[in-house]
Design brief:
112 residues, mainly alpha, 0% strand
């Protein structure tokens, strides 16, 4: 079980690194936020599950489960709130962006 936990921890670390790389490589704030949020959510969950499996003797499954639920609940919500705030502040999308759903929502007055 320790080996499987170590492998999951390593995979989680690699996903977190790729998320950081995505933040550097993406062209605008919205793409950076998307890359960072998805990668940090998956990477953190894998990392925490790996820690829980690798150190099963510590009896910290409950605490790690609470951390995982917290990350899964708050990371996407905070990213969405930040993206909406950036859009309403007037930060432009990259020229390569195909669609702007929030622009259409602003024009129709639908601010879900």
């Amino acid at each position: 079980m320790e080996l499987f936990g170590s492998i999951l921890t390593l995979i989680g670390s690699v996903v977190l690194f790729l998320g950081a790389l995505g933040i550097v490589r993406m062209p605008d704030v919205y793409n950076r936020m998307q890359a960072g949020t998805k990668a940090t959510t998956l990477g953190t969950v894998l990392f925490l599950v790996g820690i829980a499996l690798g150190h099963a003797e510590c009896g910290c499954f409950g605490k790690i489960l609470i951390l995982i639920i917290f990350v899964l609940a708050t990371n996407p919500v905070s990213s969405s709130a930040l993206a909406r705030a950036a859009h309403s502040a007037g930060i432009k999308l990259t020229e390569r962006s195909v669609k702007d759903d929030l622009k259409n929502d602003k024009e129709t007055g639908d601010m879900r």
